[in-house]
Structure formats: C-alpha cells, structure tokens
Amino acid sequence: MTEKTETGGLKAWLNADVPTSPSHAKAIQAYLGWLKLVANPLAFLGFLILVALVLCAAFAPYIAPADPLAQNLAERLSPPGSGGYLLGSDELGRDIFSRIVYGSRITLMIVTLVALTAPVFGLLVGTFAGYMGGWIDEALMRITDIFLAFPKLVLALAFVAALGAGIENAILAIAITSWPAYARIARAETLTIRNSDFISAVRLQGAGTLHIIVRHIWPLCLSSIVVRMTLDMAGIILTAAGLGFLGLGAQPPMPEWGAMISAGRKFILDQWWVATMPGLAIFIVSLGFNLLGDGLRDILDPKKSKS
Amino acid sequence: MTSVDTTQGVRRRKAASPFLRVAKRIGASLFSVIATLFGLLFVTFLIARVMPIDPVLAVVGERASNEIYEAAYKQLGLDQPFIVQFFYYVRDVVTGNFGMSNLTARPVLDDIARVFPATLELATLATIIGVLFGIPAGVVSAVYEGRWPDQVIRFIGLFGYSMPIFWIGLIGLMVFYGKLGWVGGPGRLDIFYEDIIPSVTGMILVDSLIARDWTIFWNAVSHIILPASILGYYSLAYISRMTRSFMLEQLGQEYITTARVKGLSETKVIWRHALGNVMIPLITVIVLSYASLLEGSVLTEVIFAWPGLGNYITNALLSADMNAVLGGTVIVGLVFVGLNLLSDFLYKIVDPRSR
After folding, report:
1. The domain B108-354: what is its CATH number?
2. Which parts pass through the membrane (chain B) (predicted)?
3. Which of A79, A124, A206, B168 has minimal CB crowding within 10 Å?
4. Are B36 and A149 in contact (CB under 8 A)?
C-alpha cells in the first residue's frame, strides 16, 4: 500500500515516512485509507453508489425530467419507456423516475438526521458510563439493555402510533430505537482506553473528566462508531421505508420510496413497475451502504482484515 | 453477553461453595431479567401516556356528559399520581390483563393467543430454512476464504441485508403466484379449505398432520413456502456470516493442523472437528435470529396477509387501537427477552468451559 512513487509534489508529500505536522499526518492517513478503499472494488462500488445518491439529491431539479407531483391522468400507469416516462408512470400519471430522483432527498434527509442524533447520543451515554464506572455505569447500561431488549421495528411502530404518523416522527422513532448499539460500542471502547497510560498522564496534568472524555476518548471511539453507523444505515433506510410502506412514515404526496411501493401494491399483478422501481432504488442505496460498511470494517480495523 | 461477563466475575472471586455460586448466578440473571421487563413496561406505559388519543373519550364516547366523563376518568385511575398509575398498569399486565381491543371487542390477550401460532409457524419454518442453507454456506465460504465461492456467498448475504422485505415479498408474489402460479397466494390456506380441520396447536401445518388431511397440508405448504423462504433468506444471510467468522477462528487452531497431520480426510476435519466446535456459539446465533424473525415478520405478514402477531399489531395501529398495539409490543418484548435468556442458558449447557 505504501509504495513510493516519484511523481511530483503532492503524492510525495502524502507518501512521506515522517509527517511534519498533525494535519500532514491526518492527510497521510486519509490518503492511505483512500488507497485501501480504491483497492477494495466492492467497497469502492458502495462508495460510488452513495456519491451518486448525494449528487442525485443535490441536483434533483436538473436530473428529473418532470415535476414529481405533476399529475397526468390521461397517461396513468404507462409502462416504462412509453410516452417519455423512463420508468413508467404511477396511478396518477406522475413520472416514476422523477419521483425516485426527488425521493433521494427524503432518504438522504432521514439518513442524515438519524446519523446526527442516534450515534451522538449513544457516544455520550457509552463514554460517560464507561469512564465514570460504578453505579452510573450500572444504571446507564441497564437502561441501554432495556432498549436493546426491545425489538426495533415493533418499538418504532409503537412510538409512531403514539406520536402520530409522519416523517419527523418516523425519524424520531428510528433514532430512539437505534442509539443503544452505539452506547454499547462506545462503552466497550472506553473501558479499554480508560486505564491506559496516556489517560493517566493527561489526568496528572490536571485535565478534568469532561476534557478527557471529549478530547481524548471520543476521537478513539470514532472509527468503530463510524463503521457501525455505515452498516446500520442500510437497516435504517429499510426501517424508514417499511414505516412509509405501512403509511406511518412520509405522507402522500411526498415521493418517499416506501410509500411509493405501498401505492403500487394494488397494481403489482398488472402494472409491476409502479412498485418495482422504487424498491430497486431502496435496494441499490442500502446495498451501497452495506458494501461500503463491509469494506470500511476491513480498512479501519486492522485486526479483522488479517483474519 | 452481559450474563456471561458476570459469571466470569463470580468465578474469579472463587465463591465459597458451588451451590452458593449457582444461586448467586441465578439470582443475578433473574434480577437482570426482571429489571429489563420492568423497564419494558415503563416504556410502553410512557408511550400510552404521550399518545394524543384521550382514553376517557374512547370509553364514554364523544357525547358523554361531564359527570359521566368525570366518573370514567376516576374509574380508569387517571386522577391518581403518575407512579400509582404505572403500578396499576404493571399489576394489570402481570395478571394478564391487557385490556380490551377496540377493533375486535375481545380481550387483547385472547386475540394474541389466537394469532401467535401463525407467526410461530412462519418464523420456525424460516429459521429451519436459514439453518439448512446458512450453515453450509458459511462453512464453504470459510474454507474458500477470499476466493470466488466466498465472494459469491458474501454477495448473496449482502443482497439479503439490502433488500426491503416487503418489496421482495411483493415481487415474489407477482412472479411465483401471479405469473407462474407455482405457490399459493396471500393467507394461510385457500379460502375454501379454511376452518375445516380442528385447531389443536393453531399451526396449520401441524394441525393438518394431526388430522391426516393431506390436501390441506399441501395447500398450507404452498401458502407458507414463499413467505418462509423470504424470511429464511434473511436469517440465512446472518447465520452464514456468523458461521464463516466462527469457522475461520477454528480453522486457525492447532488441533486442526494436528488432525490434518494425522492424515484425517479434509471432509472430516472441516465438517466434524471444526464445525463441531462452531456449533456451540452458533446455537446462540440461531436463537437470536429466531427471535428477530418473530418480530421481523411484521412486514412479511402484512404483504402475505398472514394472520399473525405482526399483522395484528399493524392493523391495530392503523385503527388507533392502543391497547392492542401496546399488548402486542409487550408480548413481542417478552418473547424477545425470553429467547435471549434461553440462548445464554443453552450456551452454558453446551459449552463445558462455561459451567
């Protein structure tokens, strides 16, 4: 991986044996990680899929040929390829391709919001419990176990039932049901770091608990959290789509992929494309997350890649 | 996992007598189970509290006078402090009183007892499929680590993880039922076979065998095979991945080298020696995947109109029947905790080291 190439400044700088500054070290690390990612074709494929998702969401108005909400009842349920409908039209004559393109924004929003809440909360709980130990650890982990003992989808269903159907509540329910796994991971990492010499050294220098947790423990927990998050994202997309399918997530006329499948369910025997196309989109995106997560696990965890 | 840790801690301290040690261990796991169940009930209680539906109105109706409303309010215990209400709720659940379902106008517990066998039947068959295909797939990919059979199996597994189960269910129905006509459609039986055989276990495959009615048995098989295969695919993905990593661990051990050096055939080394040791941790994996199928079948049941617990909870949800939703949630949680406990327990029985 670390072959030396004699081609010019940037590459040489990235391949330097001895980093000259902390940011240089980070750049080298990122570069080596990138090389490993490119060397793993499946992980790279996953990465490309996610890049495509982000681009699709960002440039939706330019990619989609039609308004995702524009109805044309005269041409309802047209098969793929006919009448300018690339992937066919749905029961209200809306262009399925355009709806899928706009739906990527909803998927990306769900993924981002869950990724910004559940792992952060789990990290807070896990590191705090692991570092403090004693009864705080006991109590926090007991609560975590209670949430882990609950089946995720059923708990999410119950939460949505109580809070009311809608995309915000679906996201909230998913976040509430997915933080405990991160808390467990963060705690396990903290327990191994807590008693190491460098933590004792920092503590002798007078650093407070909060400083140690935030500046010295969090950075070291990050890689396992990120791997777990990437692998979880596929599950989160599937759960969100499932809630949408049951009519508890995004509400019509939002072009949410799960809800689109649900609408196409009635026509599955004769107009197969209405339900099949959005399902393909869900499948491709969650496959992307799974492939990337699988690869990241090998890249970020040297123990596992050897075995 | 946690209880394994605690037992090790207990052993390290070398408790006085083996009897005391066992008693302590049972006490610890009993405490953890009760604490978990208590927390579970607290969460469902909180959910019931935050829901926007007025429980009094659900009882007395929209046009009740203020006096009737007040009386019902008191009767439901809503004038009591929060914590007292919670203990009323725990008392009700412990005595098996989950309230009445608004949808079916029957006690929720009766409803659940009626629908649960259908879920059990589906999840059991799916787990059998997952085990039958998942373990050999995992063994093969460990033996061919990094080569094409491994990559193919890994890819098949990732496919399984990535597919929305309700979508693949719909497509399966469209292809195998709609176009090819190879399998039965939604439901557990064709409509004209329903309610013919006496219900003994509530599981149609078993009931029809008891009644020796082969027509109904094969009809039931044709209905269950598609949803069970789809669910089985999911557990296959999980089981084969875990089998692979356990096998890799075993194949690197010295006793495997010894067996090979002694001239044992490769088949025997892999399928007898290595797999034999893998079976111990695998039991835990299989029980956990069984538990997740019991709950994960919600969407499959909806697609296949399978009259099980998942379908019941979903229907209750859509008609705002909170007693049924929360009752179902508690039952699923109970089963989940119970199976987790069972997997810990099995692990201890099978693995001589953890005795």
Report:
1. 1.10.3720.10
2. 26-48, 122-144, 156-177, 216-239, 278-304, 324-347
3. A206
4. yes
Find, among A248, A244, A271, the residue nearest to A260 by Cα.
A244
d(CA B334, CA A150): 9
User: Is the bond preceding residue A302 a cis peptide, omega within 30 degrees?
Assistant: no
Q: Note whether residue A136 is domain-resident.
A: yes
Residue of B nearest to A231 (CA): B161
Residues 97-116 of B with CB under 8 A from A: none
More confident site: B13 or A46: A46
Q: Which domain holds residue A177?
A: 95-282
Chain B partners within 8 Å of A154 (Cβ): 295, 298, 313, 328-329, 332-333
Give the nearest partner residue to B295 out of A154, A164, A283, using CB atoms: A154
Q: What share of chain B is helix, strand, coil (3-state, %, to 5)?
A: 80, 0, 20
Asked if pLDDT for residue B345 goes beyond 70, the answer is yes
| A302 assigned to some structural domain | no
From B313, B205, B334, select the one nearest A146 (Cα to Cα). B334
What are A41-70's pLDDT values in tens digits? 888 899 999 999 999 999 888 888 878 887
pLDDT digit string, tens, across residues A256-305: 898 888 888 888 878 888 888 999 999 999 999 988 888 887 777 655 44
| DSSP string over B114-135 | HHHHHHHHHHHHHHHHHHHHHH
Residue whose pair of structure tokens reads 């949430």 in the numeric block: A147
What's the CA gap between A174 and A233, in Å, rounded?
11
Answer yes or no: are the C-beta atoms of B302 and B312 closer than 8 Å: no
* Per-residue CA distances from A7 to A32, B66, B77 (Å): 17, 86, 79
- Most B CBs within 10 A among A147, A157, A160, A266, hence the mutation to make, goes to A157
A15: in domain:
no
Supply angle C-alpha B301, B305, B306, rounded to 5: 55
**pTM to 2 decimal places:** 0.82
pLDDT tens-digit readout, B113-148: 888 999 999 999 999 999 999 999 999 999 888 888
Cβ contact B170–A265 (<8 Å): yes
Q: What is the DSSP string of B137-159?
A: HHHHHHHTTTSHHHHHHHHHHHH
CATH of the domain at A185: 1.10.3720.10
Collapsing DSSP to helix, strand or coil, B300 comes out as helix
The string of DSSP letters for B1-30 reads: -HHHHHHHHHHHHT-S-HHHHHHHHHHHHH
What total number of domains does chain A contain?
1
B residues 311-340 lying closer than 8 A (beta carbon) to A:
313-314, 317-318, 320, 322, 325-326, 328-329, 332-333, 336-337, 340
CB contact (8 A) between residue A157 and residue B325 = yes
Does some domain include residue A305?
no
Residue B340 is nearest to which of A149, A160, A282, comparing CB atoms? A149
